[in-house]
Write a structure and sequence with these properties.
The structure is a homodimer. The first copy, chain A, contains five helices and two strands, in the order H-H-E-E-H-H-H. By secondary structure, chain A is mainly α. Chains A and B meet through helix 3 and helix 5 of A and helix 3 and helix 5 of B. Chain A binds a DNA duplex through helix 2.
Chain lengths: 123, 123
DNA sequence: ATAAAGGCTAAACTTAACTTCAGGTCAACA
DNA sequence: TGTTGACCTGAAGTTAAGTTTAGCCTTTAT
């Protein structure tokens, strides 16, 4: 099954302009076109895009995602490097989660103050 | 106790340029200066900055932080609004954490594949 | 008294990640 | 056959959040 850019945009909830941008930036090296130049996304393209979104949403820069992709394209010899890259990003995500929960604590503390009658000091 | 911009930068681990930028953007309305115009940060300024960093690190735009600050300055009548704003941001943080843990799962799944001998397919 | 270290400003520059625009092509259907 | 809707490109514009630069002033230590 193949999908038009519009269908992919709806499926992944991304703007069409972003899909074109990712392609332009070389993040979709396997993406095929019709003779007349229209993009046709395969299931594999979509899986790859899902991974791109996952990495992007968790703060990996497109440059790095591209580097990862290039490792994938190079073949099985890069397995260790790819693993290393994902491990690093995993550590990054864990530290993000950590920061979020510390911030959450701070905010809960503020909110608790707001709930005590009359405690509305500055900050 | 009062602090110079350099001391604050070290304490909060922020570049001096960022501290000046925050001030320039109106995020430090209570910040005092010496006669000759040098910033002197009070303990309160530092607490406020810590909150700013907490909100900023968790994805709140400076514009919104500023809006929150202005509510704080307006006084106790804005208690409900401030509470509402923090509650919303709390919900945002929770959804962030959610996304991070879903992404973590995906990455763990990829990593598990890398650990199985010979499974180094594309993507 | 003077030099070094630290402070100040306004304005320009940077970066990532998109989005918008202008102008053109393609495909399907009434 | 023509018009409508979806697609294309290259180039320019946008936005947030800073950073850098240039030129100048102040404070402190020698």
């Amino acid at each position: 099954m193949e999908y038009s850019i519009k269908q992919v945009a709806e499926k992944l909830n991304l703007p069409i302009s972003t899909l074109r941008y990712y392609d332009r930036e070389g993040l979709m090296p396997l993406l095929k076109r019709t003779e007349s130049g229209i993009r046709k996304y395969s299931e594999t393209d979509i899986s790859w895009l899902e991974l791109v979104c996952c990495l992007r949403n968790t703060g990996m820069p497109l440059e790095e995602i591209k580097a990862f992709m290039e490792l994938c394209l190079t073949g099985s010899s890069t397995g260790e490097q790819r693993k290393e890259l994902l491990e690093q990003h995993k550590a990054f995500i864990l530290s993000q989660m950590n920061m979020l929960s510390r911030s959450l604590e701070m905010i809960n503390y503020k909110l608790a103050n707001y709930n005590e009658i009359g405690i509305f000091h500055i900050i």
